[in-house]
Amino acid sequence: MIFKNSILDENQLYDLALFRVSSRCKNHWPDSFKSIFYVLLCPLEAYIFEVCRFKPLASAWYPPPKELLKFNVDGAVWGSFGLAGIGGILRDHKGNILDKFSKVAGLLDPSSAELQAILAVCRRLQGSARFSSYRLII
């Protein structure tokens, strides 16, 4: 995986994704989420139930620029730790669906489910000749 002109292995990508998820959670729920570094060190212990009290943020899909493809991913968990599912959808700048997947991911916490979805996309596209000429947004 190439990120900002650097080649990342699977562990570096996992750490980067975990840091980004942690940062986003801390930004959205500053009073109810432990520090980013705590999340990096102890991801299973960092989940806080108070997060669920807040109104969910509205979201919309925004198309990527013409020269890019966009792979949106999601992880869902039953409770704070339980059976998880992951999935994703790859679209071009017109919104055309080029690829999609979903699968059971085992027992995970919510952050790990999101990260597993990102890793699944990377593994899925790693050997794909079909999408090798495109740059990708995940």
Automatic annotation (TrEMBL):
GO terms for molecular function: nucleic acid binding; RNA-DNA hybrid ribonuclease activity. Gene3D superfamilies: Ribonuclease H-like superfamily/Ribonuclease H (3.30.420.10). SUPFAM superfamilies: Ribonuclease H-like. Pfam families: RVT_3. Coiled coil: none annotated. Residues 72-119 form the RNase H type-1 domain. This is RNase H type-1 domain-containing protein. It comes from Hibiscus syriacus.
